[in-house]
Structures are given as C-alpha cells and as structure tokens.
Design goal:
With about 400 residues, this protein is α/β, with parallel strands linked by helices. It folds into two domains: about 10-190, Rossmann fold (3-Layer(aba) Sandwich); about 250-385, Dehydroquinate synthase-like, alpha domain (Up-down Bundle), CATH 1.20.1090.10. Helix content is about 40%, strand content about 20%. The protein contains 15 helices and 14 strands. The chain has helices at about 35-45, 60-70, 95-105, 120-135, 150-155, 185, 190-200, 200-210, 215-220, 230-250, 265-275, 280-295, 305-315, 330-335, 375-385; strands spanning about 10, 15-20, 25-30, 50-55, 80-85, 115-120, 140-145, 160-165, 165-175, 180-185, 350-355, 355-360, 360-365, 375. The strands form four sheets. It has an eight-stranded mixed sheet, with helices on both faces. The protein has a two-stranded antiparallel sheet with strand order 8-9. A two-stranded antiparallel sheet has the order 11-14. It is globular, with a radius of gyration of 20 Å.
C-alpha cells in the first residue's frame, strides 16, 4: 500500500493528501479560505446517504450553520442535516454524552444510511467518533477539524475515546474516518494560546520522529501570525509525514506507533490536574519536557537533545522555569493511572510505563519492540517536580 504524503493539486483552491490506517486509505482534502468549495466537495462525496448528523462545537455556531446549510443544499431536492451541538469541555467527554447524542440522532431520524460529520476540535472529533462507531454498530465518520491539535494530529488516527474519572481516553474503540476535510482558515478562529500550544503535537512529531524537520517547524511557528504564509499547511504536512508510515503498519497504535504517546504519560496527568486550565497541547509540551528530564537522568539523552526540547517548545509558550500551578499530590496520583498500563505485564505503582528517547528521533525500544519502557516511579516523580519547579 502506497501512502501519499506529498500534496497534489486538485480543483483550486483545494489540495489533497492521504494517510493509511492499515489497509484503509483516508483522503485528506484541505485548503485556505475555501469553506464553500470544501463543503461542496464533501457534499458530492456523500453519495446516497439519507441524512447527515453534524456534531458541532458549540463555540462556533455560525460556522456550523454555514456548513449545515451548504451540505443541505449540496443535493438536488436537499439533504437532511441534523445539527447536534457539543460544548468542548473535558468533563463532557464521557459515555453519557455519547449516549445522549446517539439518542438525539435517532430521534431526528438517523438510520443505517446516515453519516456522522464532526466539526470541531479533537474532543468533538473523539465524541462524534464514538457516536459513529457505536450507533447501529457503525456509521461512516467524516472529520472537519477546526483546531490545530485536531487538524494536525487527532484526525490522523482511528482512535476514538472518552474519559473516565480515573483518566483520559480510558473507554474507546478504533473507527477509521471515511475522509477528512479542513479549511485551514478555521484554525485561525482559535485564540493565540490555543494556536501556539496546539502545535505542541507537531513539536512531538519532530522531536520523536522527524528531528530533521526542526527548522521547518520553527519557520512555521514563526509564520503563524502572518495570514498570508503557508505556516498552517507546513504544520499539517509535518503531521501527515510523521504519522502516515507508522499508522500504515500499526493502525491501532499498539506497536511502533506508540511513539506518538511521547510526552503523553505526564501530559495527560498535567491536563487533568489543571482542571481545564491547560490545553491538551500545552500539557503534552510539559509532558515532553518531563520525559526528556527522565531520559537525561537515565543517561539516555545528552544536554544538546534536552536543549532541543526547550528550543522547539519555548515559542509555543511551554517555557522551562515558568510552569503551571498544579496540585502536586493530585498530579502524582494521576501519573499512576495512565492508560498505557497493562502493555507491560507485572508493573505496579512503583513503575510508570513511558515512551522515552535515547536520541532525537530514536525512541528507546522496550519489550516486543514497543517504544515503551518501565521507569521507576520515584525517578519520574522527581523529574516531574524538577521540570515544574519555577525559576
């Protein structure tokens, strides 16, 4: 299976790339300031579906209304579109919310001939993905990402999941999107903090997989304030180029693709401990700094590699010496509930499974070749405390 990672021109102003999840190739169509053309293209691709269930982020009602109207008018005689809004808060990323949306979709006429379309960030995409994967035992899912984390990372995956009180993404399944469509201009609708910290996932890809793309990343970040630049397209391509080869071989992200969990062990704990104050991207950024510190203490990463972490994360607002204020006891408890537990048999609370690097772009191989290794919990706690120490 050949996976395209170089964009090819399609009908202007749209461009298309793709990524494979095992044997399934997912087309990714994008452009800049192209919503009408984009939604028209999506409408033409929907074929004979009987209706669309549009799960949309409540923060952007005007965009949801525009997309819904365009989809409704994309077919002669009209296409029924049901809009279900969702407030994108972590405490609402739960099974009861999934069930509520499914109930409302069926009440509005959803059948086995319906397609679920997610319009929003990674949280909305995950919740809509759970609806699509479970309603009638599986409906087609189309992703329309509107945030950097979603567009560059979250939609490049078959993972769909929701949270438990014990931790993030502990209930879920795998459901491959039929397609992804993105107007990069939607991403400019987020505030500057989200735009910058959202690119932390691309910093992860550079540090853990594509260190040769560091300059490309920094150039893109520097250009984010210039709406005429190709910064967003650069970041999207870094995401596809990093993930596509591994996801083609490991679509369930249980072997080599576990490298994309770099920074997430501590990052998820930081995000939950912040009680919504920190974005996912910012939290993963702090998680990467902590992982680098663990690797340094184990003699794996040299000072130059640790400095590279600071170099790519500082422009994103994740600055060593200026940590978030978190309740440390809660953070350390959450660290021991990471959803990667169980990959390594026989590990108790004295061990934290982590993705670590032995060099930039080279994850440390663990059991069965997985880039996941057991680390003494005390060492992890000490490293986390060191990274979160104010200057």
């Amino acid at each position: 299976m050949t996976t395209a990672t170089t964009p090819r021109a399609t009908a202007a102003p749209l461009r298309e790339t793709s990524f494979a999840l095992g044997d399934e190739v997912v087309p990714y169509t994008y452009g800049d300031r192209c919503t009408e053309e984009l939604v028209a293209g999506l409408g033409a691709e929907l074929g004979a579906v009987d209706r669309v269930v549009l799960v949309a982020d409540a923060v952007a009602p005007a965009l949801a209304e525009k997309v819904a109207a365009a989809l409704a008018g994309s077919r002669a005689g009209g296409l029924p579109v049901v809009v279900l809004t969702l407030t994108a808060r972590e405490e609402l990323k739960t099974l009861p919310v999934v069930l509520d949306l499914a109930e409302r979709a069926v009440e509005a006429g959803a059948t086995r001939g319906t397609v679920v379309v997610a319009l929003g960030g990674g949280l909305v995409g995950n919740v809509a993905g759970m609806v699509a994967a479970t309603l009638f035992r599986g409906l087609p899912l189309v992703q329309l990402p509107t945030t950097p984390v979603a567009a560059f990372d979250a939609v490049l995956s078959a993972k769909q999941g929701v949270n438990l009180s014990a931790g993030k993404n502990m209930v879920g399944t795998f459901w491959t999107p039929a397609s992804v469509w993105c107007d990069l201009d939607w991403l400019r609708g987020v505030d500057e903090r989200q735009l910058l910290t959202g690119t932390a996932e691309m910093a992860k890809n550079v540090l853990a997989v594509l260190p040769e793309r560091e300059e490309d990343l920094l150039t893109a970040v520097d250009g984010l304030g210039d709406h005429g630049s190709d910064a967003l397209a650069r970041l999207l391509q870094i995401g596809v180029d990093a993930k596509a080869p591994m996801l083609a071989a490991d679509p369930h992200e249980r072997r080599e693709a576990l490298v994309f969990e770099y920074g997430h062990t501590v990052g998820h704990a930081v995000e939950l401990a912040s009680r919504g104050a920190l974005s996912h991207g910012a939290s993963v950024g702090w998680g990467m700094l902590a992982a680098a510190e663990v690797s340094r203490r184990l003699g794996l990463l040299d000072e130059a590699a640790v400095a590279a972490h600071a170099r790519v994360l500082t422009p994103l607002g994740v600055r060593a010496g200026h940590p978030p204020r978190l309740e440390r006891a809660a953070l350390h408890r959450l660290l021991l509930r990471d959803n990667k537990r169980g990959y390594l048999p026989g590990t108790g609370d004295d061990v934290v499974p982590m993705v670590l690097l032995e060099a930039l772009g080279r994850p440390l191989a663990g059991e069965n070749g997985r880039p996941l290794v057991p680390v003494d919990a005390d060492l992890v706690h000490e490293a986390v405390d060191a990274v979160l120490q104010p200057s």
